[in-house]
Amino acid sequence: MPLRRPGHTGRGSRDLEINPVFSREPLRVPRHAMPDGEMEPDTAYQLVHDELMLDGNARLNLATFVTTWAEPQALRLMAECVEKNMIDKDEYPQTAELETRCVDMLARLWHAEDPHRATGCSTTGSSEAAMLGGLALKRRWRHRRREEGRPADRPNLVMGVNVQICWEKFADYFDVEPRYVPMEGDRYHLSPETAVESCDENTIGVVAVLGSTFDGSYEPVAGIAAALDELQTRTGLDVPIHVDGASGAMIAPFLDPDLHWDFRVPRVASINTSGHKYGLVMPGVGWVLWRDASALPDDLVFHVNYLGGDMPTFALNFSRPGAQVVAQYYNFLRLGFDGYRRVQRTCRDVATRLAGEIAGLGRFELITDGHETPVFAFRVREGIDDFTVFDVSAALRERGWLVPAYTFPENRTDLAVLRVVVRNGFSHDLADLLMEDLRRVLPRLEAQGGPRRTADDAGGFAHGTESKSPRRHGHG
Questions:
Q1: Are residues 194 and 86 in the same domain?
Q2: Membrane spanning segments where (predicted)?
Q3: Residue 453: pLDDT band with limits 50, 70, 90
Q4: Cβ-count burial 140-161 (b if 16+ within 10 Å, e if not)
Q5: Are residues 437 and 417 located together in one domain of the fold?
Q6: How many domains does the chain have?
């Protein structure tokens, strides 16, 4: 049975009425059923095009981390490769070669000890990449437990409650107990102490997030690793780390070169990133890399024929587009290290300047200021009772700005914030226009005499900050 759209009540089920400009076609077209006959391509295009005008402007969407601008040459390459299936290694050998080169480049970027021994692949995005990293952790743990003659039926994964929703899906789909570390006070993500407290002999790994979706902050990977080293010294428990670098793994190498979060940290077994976020590619492509072949159990790897040889593959999806992989390689060639550093530096400069100007208005308090990933969150200052962050979000939307407002998860549900994601293409000029509109709406909001909107009015406008399921498992 097909899934229904959430909240769909049947409104808008009336057939589409075609304006007389399309008089060469029938004047009515069914909305939820396939038409009986054909129509002119231009007519079909115009129908779809006109409905899509109701979508928000992607360039003004400050909720999404996903790339919304690309160079014409990258788009041209994607159009030239749109029909290529990434899984067909033998039919499209050069596309497969470009994927391998991208993996090698990322291995060097993330300081793999021997980049040629690091293993990895492209995916449809960070969610798939994260799940592959989690599966490898689970399988390695299970092999070790069975070799020791111990039960391997109660795996758990330790992570902050701020992780992206894909990790809840991983735990649910693959029967792993999710141990979410709640936020506490001004600590909005996982800390070394809280990570270690949740680990036991059934822990398959710890997920450390480099660029929290809630506020853009980095989790202290090196500190978590050091705490796990001490745990192993005390107890013998050897718990690996997977770094969810969906955003930050394409920021930190260029802007924070002295920050140890990657394969320079021996306990980091795997890393994922999103090529279609700060990798600067249109959606959807992600990447996952393991430190070396030993970090990826061979029984998870499938082998396909590739130019008469063997090509190992590990992915949840089979058929998927090759165009985004080609665009990723184009970006790596086109920008190089210095070009990526310039782009990411500009994003961070815009984010920190905009955060500072918003704080300077006097009505808001910063939670983060964009100095890690180019993302910042801010709340309405205490004592201001005329409006909420949800009022601000709705008022900005009137001008086309999509700025999400949401509450933080358990233990800090009292904290409601707005979040701004600065991506390539969101310039200082656009930031100035956002500030002008924010200044313009504030007097009206202050004059309304009290909040008009609450979290219930935000709908699904959360972009990765959804509350995790209340279902919990006890520590076994």
A1: yes
A2: none
A3: confident
A4: bbeeebeeeeeebeebbbbbbb
A5: yes
A6: 3
- Whether 441 and 401 share a structural domain: yes
Q: Is the pTM of this model over 0.85?
A: yes
Statement to judge: residues 101 and 24 lie in one domain: no
Q: Give the Cα-Cα-Cα angle 438, 439, 441 (nearest 5 degrees).
A: 65
Strand partners, 17: 28
Phi-psi region of 466 (alpha: psi -120 to 50; beta: other; left: phi over 0): beta
Q: What does the pLDDT read at residue 474? A: 33
Residue 9 lies in a domain: no
The answer to whether residues 276 and 130 belong to one domain is yes
Whether residues 47 and 182 share a domain: the answer is no
Q: What CATH number should be reported for the domain holding residue 447?
A: 3.90.1150.160
Please indicate, yes or no, whether residues 408 and 278 belong to a single structural domain of this protein. Answer: no
CA dihedral of 142, 146, 151, 154, whole degrees rounded to 10? 0
Residues 365, 250 share a domain: no
Confidence band of 381 (pLDDT split at 50, 70, 90) = very high
Q: Are 194 and 207 in contact (CB under 8 A)?
A: no
Q: What is the pLDDT of residue 470?
A: 42
pLDDT in tens, 11-54: 566 676 666 555 565 567 888 999 888 888 888 888 899 899 99
CA dihedral 297, 313, 278, 463 (to 10 degrees): -80
CA–CA distance, 289 with 136 (Å, rounded to integer):
11
pLDDT at 473: 34
What does the chain come to in residues?
Answer: 476
The amino acid that residue 349 corresponds to is D
CA pseudo-torsion sign 244, 250, 256, 259: positive
**Other Cβ atoms within 10 Å of 451 Cβ, number:** 15
Q: Which of 298, 331, 364 delimits the end of a domain?
A: 331
DSSP calls for 324-370:
HHHHHHHHHHHHHHHHHHHHHHHHHHHHHHHHHHHHHTSSEEES--S
27 belongs to a structural domain: yes
322-353 pLDDT, tens digit per residue, is: 999 999 999 999 999 999 999 999 999 999 99
The residue range of the domain holding 22 is 16-55
pLDDT at residue 464, as a whole number: 56
